[in-house]
Design a protein that fits this description.
Elements (H helix, E strand, L loop, with lengths): L12 H14 L1 H10 L11 H10 L4 H15 L4 H14 L4 H15 L5 H6 L2 H9 L6 H11 L11 H11 L7 H9 L5 H15 L8
Helix pairs in contact: 1-2, 2-12, 3-4, 3-6, 3-9, 5-6, 10-12
């Protein structure tokens, strides 16, 4: 999808490959990742309530642990809907293994969807600054969570997930840094990759997973 003026509004597999070509021509280190692992997956998620729940589950735990918990909720509810999460209540969510905080966050977001205070279709259609402000007002969603939603669910091409530890580790590797870069250092490095920072993040995630024997190119 392209916005007015020809800029990419949402990444597709074609736009992802275009971004990879541009970045690898611009940055030798990113080109090295592509030579090792190829073009990374799009890692796209459907916009909406289920993706927000999954992002909350991924906070401060491994992706494997979050995936297990998400599948447990899917099995219990027969899907992932605000109606099911709201009906379970915070206590029911905790009984399924969510922490007290995550249970409260998921229940509150479900409540806001159901009573109309949160319209995720409207968020997707808003200018990014306004949509992000709306998501940041939700309990449990900080800058990293909102960045991930915009990067994976809305597939914006130029998002850098603030404070992502896997990206910090990958940057340390590929840039030959002596220590993990701070958020500010990450931001300065990533600024060189605009308007394809979301593509750079995918390349670096692919490197991170590949270095740990966890990379699945077709994911």
């Amino acid at each position: 999808m392209r916005a007015q003026g020809g800029s990419v509004r949402a990444l597709t597999t074609v736009a992802l490959r275009q971004g990879v070509r541009v970045l690898c021509a611009r940055d030798h280190d990113l080109g090295g990742i592509r030579r090792r692992v190829g073009v990374p997956p799009l890692w796209a998620r459907r916009p909406g309530f289920p993706s927000l729940v999954r992002i909350i589950l991924e906070q401060q735990v491994s992706l494997a642990a979050a995936r297990t918990m998400y599948r447990r909720l899917l099995a219990r509810f027969g899907g992932m809907s605000p109606e099911a999460v709201h009906a379970a209540g915070e206590a029911g969510l905790r009984d399924l293994g969510l922490t007290r905080q995550k249970a409260r966050y998921c229940w509150e977001i479900a409540a806001r969807v159901l009573d109309g205070r949160l319209d995720l279709s409207a968020v997707a259609a808003l200018p990014d600054r306004e949509g992000r402000a709306m998501l940041l007002s939700l309990p449990g969603l900080g800058p990293w969570s909102v960045d991930i939603y915009y990067l994976m669910a809305l597939r914006r091409p130029d998002v850098w997930p603030e404070g992502d530890l896997a990206l910090a580790s990958a940057l340390k590797d590929v840039k030959g840094l002596r220590k993990l870069p701070s958020r500010e250092d990450q931001g300065r490095i990533a600024a060189r990759w605009s308007p394809w920072r979301s593509v750079a993040a995918r390349l670096l995630w692919a490197h991170y997973l590949h270095a740990r024997g966890q990379y699945e190119p077709t994911a």
